[in-house]
Amino acid sequence: MSNPAEKICPPDQLAARLPALARPLVMTNGVFDVLHRGHVSYLHRAAELGGSLLVALNTDRSAKMLGKGPDRPLHSDVDRAYVLAGLGCVDLVTFFDTRTPVELIRALRPDIYVKGGDYDMETLEETQVVRSWGGQSLALPFVEGFSTTALVQRIRTPLRKAAFLDRDGVINRDRAYVHRWQDFEFMPGAIEGMRRLQQAGYALVVVTNQSGLARGYYTEAEYQALSSAMRQELARQGVELAGIYHCPHHPAGAVADLAIACDCRKPAPGLLLQAAQELQLSLTDSLLIGDKPSDIEAARAAGVGHAYLVDSDNPESGTAPHLADGHFADLLTCTTALLGAATL
């Protein structure tokens, strides 16, 4: 059937439609509000278990019995049914108006009943009913990382603006492969600059290339210890970091697992994109402050709204000021200028 509407069947018409469905008949049920990849993958796997797949959909009234929230489902049962019917793996969609589909299962007598998730099928009444005529009851795991509830929450959470900050040369003096706290020295005014950005509503996110890991100059544990000490000192002075993201790779590295080309080493945008996804950041409303052209290139590739260069001891510092939206002496000077600009 090419028209999804033809695959939607009211419960009182199921008896006339069932004989046309190929056996074994697989049945599943759910709300399927805001259909996502996890749902589609699950339904395809369910369909592969038999000759046809019937999906029993919670009506709006039934869905509200599940306690997902006063405004759920977001889509009406008719709209949810139409979307499901548009999937090639689904042969028929019907409805049930109760908390569970037990009575509908008794009427349909499927050969295989499937639930998605980590259900203990032995505890479900549905399992006992299906087995009463020799049918099977199976649980199929959902695809990890996909959840309608989590998706709705993410949509409703306003995206934050961020200040992405390179570390060496911007936050601390660039002394080449700093990895011990006793060698770490904040740049003059850096903490005050970060404090001002924070007060202006920016989430502070450190994005740093750490090729010393790939070169074998220090270990991941040593890097993490330094990051923890930096975070603690900043917190002591009233500056909270939303995140610290680092790239441990370098194609010419001595550590085999890290000696690779990657999408996280700046000028690639991987670190920025990862942070934006995990911290729910608006890239277009964010800014980046770095001391090398690769920082600016990463910001452009990621779609960050503004990118600025500051001077440091690194030989690459200030070599391509035309790439940036501005060029300043240091983080504090940059921050002072930006927070007074009408465009920000």
TrEMBL record:
Pfam families: CTP_transf_like, Hydrolase. NCBIfam families: cyt_tran_rel, GmhB_yaeD, HAD-SF-IIIA, Histidinol-ppas, PRK08942.1. Keywords: Carbohydrate metabolism, Cytoplasm, Hydrolase, Metal-binding, Zinc. Its main location: cytoplasm. The keyword Repressor does not apply. CDD domains: HAD_HisB-N. It comes from the Bacteria. The lineage of its organism: Bacteria, Pseudomonadati, Pseudomonadota, Betaproteobacteria, Burkholderiales. Residues 27-149 form the Cytidyltransferase-like domain. GO terms for biological process: carbohydrate metabolic process. It comes from Giesbergeria anulus. One of its GO terms (cellular component) is cytoplasm. InterPro entries: Cyt_trans-like, HAD-like_sf, HAD-SF_hydro_IIIA, HAD_sf, Heptose_bisP_phosphatase, Histidinol-phos, Rossmann-like_a/b/a_fold. This is D,D-heptose 1,7-bisphosphate phosphatase.
